[in-house]
Design goal:
alpha/beta; Rossmann fold; 7-stranded mixed beta sheet; 9 helices; 13% strand; binds zinc ion
Amino acid sequence: MPKNRSKSPARKAVPADPLRILSIGAHPADIFDQSGGTMAHHVSRGDWVGCCVLTHGARVHDKVISDEMFHAKQVPEAKRLEALMVERADVKAEEVRRACTILGVKDVYFFGADDAVLLPNEAVVRRLASLFRELRPDLLLTHFPMEAGGVWNPHAAAGQIVLLASALAGEVDPGDSRPPHRVMQIFFWGQGAGALPHTVWDAHRPFYNDVIIDITDVADKKLACLDCLVSQGYAGAYARKRIETSDGAFGLAGGVPYGEAFISQAAQTHYYLPVSEYSRKRARMSDHERIQRYSFRITS
Ligand SMILES: [Zn+2]
């Protein structure tokens, strides 16, 4: 391990009562972009980690649908276009499966919704609630429902779908014989690094990232995941830029080289005031020691 790479002081042995963690993204890349490193940590610790992708994502940065057709004289007629989208959706799903294998995630659920307009409608909420009753996750990782002001953005819609579904999962629903299930906590994906506030929808931001996970020891694993997402142009230079700009910025906020940030849905109760090992160490470092610690870069 390189000299300045963080030694993950909070790493723990396999828990006696493993957590069940479900990461839910609007599009195929989101789960890796936002929580790939965190998922890798929890898989290594022995927790169960699963993924759910709400839309097929064929329109999102796809090499054929959104790139080649952008400059074409004419797009194919409806039937041919629909068939092409199914084809591209399959390519994307395969990339997701490959990336999940790198993280050690075995259970992936594709809802296959059209990514044209993702709305928090009753059908998708009921379906997701049913998945929650089936999988019984303790923690949900997903989009922040107020992303981009929460008014038009598919990520925000996905976060809202998850919130509604988690509430419904806590109740019975005709047609689902599984008992109700309540999650312990929802960690929304951090804001402000991957997309800096730059539109009117970002003007009002009454929130901050209150949890930062040090992913430095698995940043290369996350990079390998992003490299799998060839169909949307992530592989290669973009993946590296993404890790440096987004995870690097979250890391800087947390005093580590690379981090993933989260916004807790609810305050957690403790017996003592919570102080992480990172906070203790950081408080005892000089300015130059902090800069040196932060400055490690993966080079692969
Ligand atoms: Zn997305």
